[in-house]
Amino acid sequence: MEATEKRHLLDARLGVRSYTGSLWQDGTGWIPLPGPGLDLQVITTQSNHYCHAQKGPGSHCDPQKEKARRQLYVASAICLVFMIGEVIEILGALLSVLSIWVVTGVLVYLAVERLISGDYEIEGGTMLITSGCAVAVNIIMGLTLHQSGHGHSHGASQQQENPSVRAAFIHVIGDFLQSLGVLVAAYIVYFKPEYKYVDPICTFLFSILVLGTTLTILRDVILVLMEGTPKGVDFTAVRDLLLSVEGVEALHSLHIWALTVTQPVLSVHIAIARNADAQEVLKVASAQLQGKFHFHTMTIQIEDYSEDMKDCQACQGPSD
């Protein structure tokens, strides 16, 4: 080993060393020093929290933060599940209606084709048996859905059945009407084979009835998807009710929409007099709204009334 002028430990303090000379061995090789006669002081420190010293910046682990993060993940997952459920409820009803229209369109197309060609034969007996069984099955399904849809109303006049159940019930009614039309046509054709054109004509008539029965459920679905004002809730009536509450001077940002067919939602800002009790106003307004309109969720913000609200365009509600 080359001779190297080296001076060992000068200071007895832990972690402090000083070397003098032209070379310094660090365990992996010889490193040239800046110059002869210069001191290179290597200072090492020890930490009482050695495990944290090994972690990079931002990697500090706080058990409480980890627990809060897990709770937020769980809450977000639950909210997502409920949101999917609400969407499926409405979209399921919409798909049910659209499926009825598709089936009706196919039947109308086949009926038109039969009338144009005139070259078709109908087995009256087979048609009569098949349509009779279909009518019986649809009656049973319709009664089942009708009872399940009204079995939990508890006499509430505002209560409406689930839109998916309504759509399924409408679907069954549509199938029933079509089967009934086939049954009538089969009865005529069975006894009067020369009147076979009655079959496509009955298809036209009952298809119109089927489309008419789906319009109400389609209207409800579009109302929810477009966040329209729910049925049975009048905007002006809600506004007048809130203004009639003692202590309320004005209101603005009144929004009413349908979260689902059976869940109307409201949000509003209420301006009250300075001497009014905010909690009492909130309690009375909430009770009256819930008692008359049966809102599923209400968000009411209380604020002090200002004279500037009379001329503020943003504070003015929609005109009648």
TrEMBL record:
GO biological process, one term: response to zinc ion
Keyword presence, Transport: yes
Keywords: Antiport, Ion transport, Membrane, Transmembrane, Transmembrane helix, Transport, Zinc, Zinc transport
Record's catalysed reaction(s): Zn(2+)(in) + 2 H(+)(out) = Zn(2+)(out) + 2 H(+)(in)
Top-level taxon: Eukaryota
Single GO term (MF): zinc ion transmembrane transporter activity
Pfam family, one: ZT_dimer
Sequence similarity: Belongs to the cation diffusion facilitator (CDF) transporter (TC 2.A.4) family. SLC30A subfamily.
Protein name (record): Zinc transporter 2 isoform X2
Taxonomic lineage from the root: Eukaryota, Metazoa, Chordata, Craniata, Vertebrata
Gene name of the record: SLC30A2
